[in-house]
């Protein structure tokens, strides 16, 4: 398998408090959840996950926020946290802590809303940080297109440009998302492709807003060892 494990880092800037804090928070919530019996873990997902059929009936709106901090299993968690580790810190270092916090939460909520739009009557809870992280990745593509992403294939490291890695990623999401609509497959039971697409689109818009700030001109990248 191939994994993204690092990138070129911003020199200086704000310390990525929330980028690292969200990693710790998501891990802590997951560890708390898996201490429960299996039936209570399922109940936890249904209580804090975002269920489209409930949201569209005006119920449990708080899950638009809580769902992005709940994960279904270890691989779900590890994959999301790895992407958060790679892509979030440069954005927060550049735009500042509070602005990043606001952006991350809005991106996550917008991603959930996109999923609900395409799964209006689904009674399956959506959980996971991937929508918010997709927003981070969209902003990263605009803000750091020439950054190099460090990849690992088995034990062999190599680097690819951010625009290539993220471009291929969003094309895959779009392909799976449109295929799920054509086949009328309910995404809620698997991957929320449209949450990824919606989050990424919001991230692109935010990235252009962030780039328009005069302070962005001072950003420099340095190679990660």
At CATH level 2, the architecture is Up-down Bundle
What does the main sheet amount to?
3 strands, antiparallel
**If you average the pLDDT, what whole number results?**
90
Assigned CATH class: Mainly Alpha
Write down the secondary-structure element order.
EEHHHHHHHEEHHE
| Estimated helix fraction | 55-70%
Strand proportion: 5-15%
Number of domains: 1
Task: Identify the overall geometry.
Answer: globular
Looking at CATH, the homologous superfamily is Rhomboid-like
Distance between the termini: 22 Å
**How many helical elements?**
9
Roughly how many Å is the radius of gyration? 17 Å
Uncertain parts? 185-189
Within the largest sheet, what's the order of strands? 1-3-4
Number of strands: 5
CATH topology term: Rhomboid-like fold
Q: Topology of this protein?
A:
Elements: E1 2-7, E2 9-10, H1 17-33, H2 38-48, H3 52-55, H4 63-66, H5 74-95, H6 97-118, H7 130-143, E3 148-153, E4 156-161, H8 162-182, H9 193-211, E5 221-222
Antiparallel strand pairs: 1-3, 2-5, 3-4
Helix pairs in contact: 1-5, 5-6, 5-7, 6-7, 6-9, 7-8, 7-9, 8-9
Summarize the structure.
The protein has 225 residues and is mainly alpha-helical. The protein has one domain: Up-down Bundle (Rhomboid-like fold).
Task: Explain what you see.
By secondary structure, the chain is mainly α. 60% of the residues lie in helices and 10% in strands.
């Amino acid at each position: 398998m191939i994994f993204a494990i690092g990138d070129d880092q911003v020199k200086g800037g704000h310390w990525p408090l929330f980028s690292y804090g969200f990693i710790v928070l998501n891990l802590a919530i997951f560890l708390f959840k898996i201490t429960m019996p299996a039936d209570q873990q399922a109940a936890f997902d249904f209580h804090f996950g975002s269920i489209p059929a409930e949201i569209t009936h005006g119920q449990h709106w708080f899950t638009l926020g809580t769902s992005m901090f709940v994960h279904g299993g270890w691989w779900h968690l590890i994959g999301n946290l790895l992407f958060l580790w790679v892509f979030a810190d440069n954005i927060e270092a550049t735009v500042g802590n509070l602005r990043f916090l606001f952006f991350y939460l809005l991106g996550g909520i917008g991603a959930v809303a996109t999923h609900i739009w395409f799964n209006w009557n689904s009674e399956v809870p959506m959980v996971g940080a991937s929508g918010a992280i997709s927003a981070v990745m969209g902003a990263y593509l605009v803000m750091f297109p020439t950054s190099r992403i460090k990849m690992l294939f088995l034990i062999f490291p190599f680097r690819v440009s951010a625009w290539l890695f993220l471009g291929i990623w969003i094309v895959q999401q779009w392909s799976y998302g449109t295929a799920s609509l054509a086949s009328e497959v309910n995404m809620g039971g698997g991957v929320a492709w449209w949450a990824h697409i919606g989050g990424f689109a919001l991230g692109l818009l935010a990235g252009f807003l962030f780039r328009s700030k005069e302070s962005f001109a001072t950003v420099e990248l340095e190679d990660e060892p």
